[in-house]
Amino acid sequence: MSISASAIPVTYDRRQLPNGLRVVASQLRDTRAASARVFLDGGSRAEPADLAGVAHFLEHAVFKGTERWPTAKELGLATERVGGAADAFTDKDHAGFIVHGPADYLRLFLDVLADLLVRPLLEPAELERERDVIAEELRACRDDSDDMAKTALENALWPKHPLGREILGTARTIRSMTRDDLNAYRAGWYTPRAAVVAVASCLPTEDVFAAVEQAFGGWRGEAPPGWRPAPPPPPGPVLQVQSRRAEQVRFRIGFPVPARPDARRYALDILTTSLAGPATSRLELSLREELALVYDVSASLEQYEDTGLMSLAAGVATDKVNQALRAIVDELRSLREGMPPDEVERVKDYLTGRWLCAEGTDFHASFAGRDEQVFGKPSTVDEEIARLRAVGIDELRELAGEVFRPERLFFSVVGPYRHTSALDRLLGEL
Predict the structure, then answer these.
(1) Which pairing describes strands 238-243 and 85-90: parallel, antiparallel, or unpaired?
(2) Cα–Cα dist 351/278, whole Å
(3) DSSP track, 372-386
(4) How many structural domains does the chain have?
(5) Which of 114, 145, 149, 344 is the most buried (most CB within 10 A)?
(6) CB within 8 A of 107, min separation 6: which ones?
């Protein structure tokens, strides 16, 4: 028996402050929580090569103290004493700062975010301590074969470009990073004209706009400097093999895909999800359930304003690599022939359910803020589901035929594995 549930669709109100800062707010029912997010243009693709990792270093450094909360402990207690939590992240093309907690303390949360972005202290002694923390993070990445395979894949697709680099930077660049370097990056990219503040809470949106203006109205800065366009991918297939002692071989297969503004991003979501993710996806069923070759297999889709990458990742025993690749190649060739209608509907149902189950304050702050940053106006969950549902079988077949070609294939493997002619033949059969 199915139960029909109805809810009032969430909408987003938008405003731009005189300093250029864009603000998006949504009022949710039946919650006493609030989530506030700041999205900043930039990220690691905005870095020069000699300052690789500066965006991530700065994300860490601002949490060491601000004018109002001079130490990391005081800054942490500002949110934690009321049950809130602050966090941040750096991605290839943007950075984000987040505070989530009781809605009664939204003004405090916004003040914390504003102090992090506008008034960090960046004390030299604290920077030295954080430099050591990031060095440990870099060492952890070098111990992670999957992370190494991912970075190698990106470097092969975007050679000599920031998109092909590790977000954390390198041991050399982190050692040489100065306070002036951090402040120079902050001056260029931590600016209201390159930022979006998004808030989802139970509070009226007019009250939210007033609170954001009070916290961020004095923020000043020019337009961001911009970044270098991504180069066209080299012709494939491109193979990267890094031999290292390990219990398992980790590999990734990747394909360049249309950039984020391309309307086929909904079809790409369906193709990616059909391959891996749900327990009933193609590679979960073939590699794990039927062949028992892997413990985990995953698919990811990364899209930027000018390029994109779909990749499949798995870890297998050394003598099972070619068998696993054979199964993946077979599934990719099958997708080029077309997806059965029942599978298409099943994947659409799955993605629709994921959208609906995700709804909450942090989801809506993230969804609306990122949409505002990327597309200039947030969509709604209902609109996204409608566009997903509108994808046809012919569009999926045509896109799979365009993407899954041997001349567009990038492959990286890390572990106790040798590059053989059998591997070349196998990947060429796609």
Answers:
(1) unpaired
(2) 10
(3) HHHHSS---HHHHHH
(4) 2
(5) 149
(6) 211, 214, 215
Same domain, 212 and 243: no
| Residues 209 and 301 both lie in one domain | no
Query: Tokens 């090569």 appear where?
Result: 49
Quick one: 209 and 330 in the same domain? no
Please indicate whether residue 3 or residue 25 has the higher confidence score (pLDDT): 25
Radius of gyration, alpha carbons of the chain: 23
Residue 5 lies in a domain: no
Q: Which residues pair with 298 in a beta bridge?
A: 313
* Residue 245: band (very low, low, confident or very high) from pLDDT cuts 50, 70, 90: confident
Q: What is the pLDDT of residues 113-164, one digit of tens each?
A: 999 999 999 999 999 999 999 999 999 988 889 999 999 999 999 999 999 9
Residue 291's domain comprises 238-428
Residue 6 CA: distances (Å) to CA of 9, 356, 357: 9, 11, 13
Computed over every residue of the chain, the mean pLDDT equals 94
| CATH for 72 | 3.30.830.10
Examine the domain organization and report whether 140 and 286 are in the same domain: no
Place of tokens 């993230």: 366
